[in-house]
Amino acid sequence: MNRRIVRDIFLGVLLTASLVAAVCVPEAEGGATERAGDILFVLIPAAAYGTAFFLDDNEGEAQFLRSLVASSGVTLALKLAVNKERPDGSGDDSFPSLHTSVAFQGAAFIQKRYGWRYAIPVYAGAVFTGYSRVHARKHYAVDVAAGAAVGILSGYCLTTMRGTRVAPVAGNGFYGLSVSRRW
User: Is 132 helix (H, G, I), strand (E, B) or coil?
Assistant: First the structure.
């Protein structure tokens, strides 16, 4: 089966599942919106990794895992350092939002590795995840914005376009980066 077809099917399933999760999830303790955000928190990174896996993109798999670990690690370290109380009073780990960080990391990975065509519905799911955290009174808007920034930065900094290589270069009195792309 053609890899493009596999990718289109996989991302189409992601979009459909995101819409179903957002609309059809039954009421939970925090409501359908919170539950849908919880589902997308897992679904988006699973789809990002799954895309690399199904495309036999070993380099992409490694880049995804590095950026996920970086995003999660920075977010958890900030939660411990900032110690901000949640809007609902349920804890002191409000800043930044881990759900949002992970969702945006997955979206940024897909966009950087495979292009905007596939990332637009994933970014929509990530935005909904952030909205769900504010709606459920688990985070303030600034917590969600900070989580999105951490996720996007880790996705962008630790992911290359498929077929693109970035390498450090050092020479006689200069330092820089070399960028090459296969055509």
Answer: helix
Question: Buried (b) or exposed (e) across 57-90, using 16+ Cβ within 10 A?
Answer: beebbebbeebbebbbebbeebbeeeebebeeee
Please tell me the total count of domains within the chain.
Answer: 1
Q: What is the CA radius of gyration of the chain?
A: 18
Helix, strand, or coil (residue 91): coil
β-sheet bridge partners, residue 174 = 171
**Residue range of the domain that includes 9:** 3-181
The three-class DSSP label of residue 97 is coil
CATH of the domain at 39: 1.20.144
Q: For 91-137, what is each residue's pLDDT tens digit? A: 999 999 999 999 999 999 999 998 888 888 899 999 999 999 999 99
Report the predicted TM-score, pTM, of the whole model to 2 decimal places. 0.78
